[in-house]
Amino acid sequence: MAARTDLTIGSIADAVIRVDTSHDRLAEIVVRYGLWYLHETTGSAASTRINGNPVSGWSFAPLEVGDVITFRGSAVRVEVEYIDGSLERAERLRFRFGAATAAGDHGANEDASLASPVLVAVADGVGGHPRGADASAAAVEAVRNGDPAAPLDDLIGRARDGVAELATPADRRSGRAPATTLDIVRIVNVAGAPPLLEIAHVGDGAVFIQTPDTRAQLVTTEHGHENSLDRGIGLQDQRHDYLPVDGRVGQRVILTSDGLLKALGADTVDHLLNELRRTPPRQTADQLVLAAVDLLRSEAGAGHVLDDVTVVVADVVLDAPLQPAAPIERVHSR
Ligand SMILES: [Mn+2]
Q1: Domains of the chain, first to last
Q2: How far is the CA of 165 from the centre of ligand 1 (A)?
Q3: Tens-digit pLDDT profile for residues 245-278
Q4: Residue 218 has what DSSP assignment?
Q5: How far is the CA of 51 from the centre of ligand 1 (A)?
Q6: How many CB atoms sit inside 10 A of residue 31's CB?
Q7: Would you say 217 and 83 are in contact if contact means Cβ atoms under 8 Å apart?
């Protein structure tokens, strides 16, 4: 019952290598915005590994030079040489990222996040609506499984579909279906054009951009007031803001759920981001989350309710080794 395997190199649409069997396509290696990906096209992730590790839920898993991909007992090693007409060195920007989260006083954490070398996202299940944790997870999962080069509108559309599927007839009758905020920041490297950071924002999360010479700038506007959201994925009004920004080496992007600003206030967040501007992403995320948790669990925070707090920090770097996309660490109060 051994499947016949065809290996095709080059010239099929934008797939570089495509491995087929007689019955189902297994996987292909594709290029998206200057990065190479292993794209799983069927539910074959269990049998495909990168450097011996399962592909872990990414339908587009970033590849690094030297990676060894095994498909059902055959191995391919990735060797990339950029030739004429390919992306210039200066156009291959990537994220070096770190993330942290802590559950608030309501119990289960209803925030979700995602980080890869070209895309970071934070979602926060809307309070007062059912199954917020499912809604934020569905939004992030939809983005994770989207094509990294699809228009950002398409990724948002996938998130809307994924969240809409969670709604029961009873949810719809009550007018309170599962809903979530969503912030996405993506690096777009296109040959012959300056690199872009594309930001999609809906809800009351926040995206900041910082450079080595400037304080962090809040680039998003809150879609809501007090504790009521005007816009969100799964709400009546799902419209997102689209904010393109020039991408440059040295930029730092910070995504947070609303819990951080609610706990610390804008001035303290600004102060901490400035203090931590040269601290690596993971430690920066940890320290911001811990600052929120510690403040609200101290005497000064008595009487305040801690919301879930999630922070993703992504530094724009040039041609750094790809960091494996990984689940984020939970942070607990000291
Ligand atoms: Mn929140």
Answers
A1: 5-77 (no CATH), 91-330 (3.60.40.10)
A2: 22
A3: 999 999 999 999 999 999 999 999 999 999 999 9
A4: E
A5: 37
A6: 16
A7: no
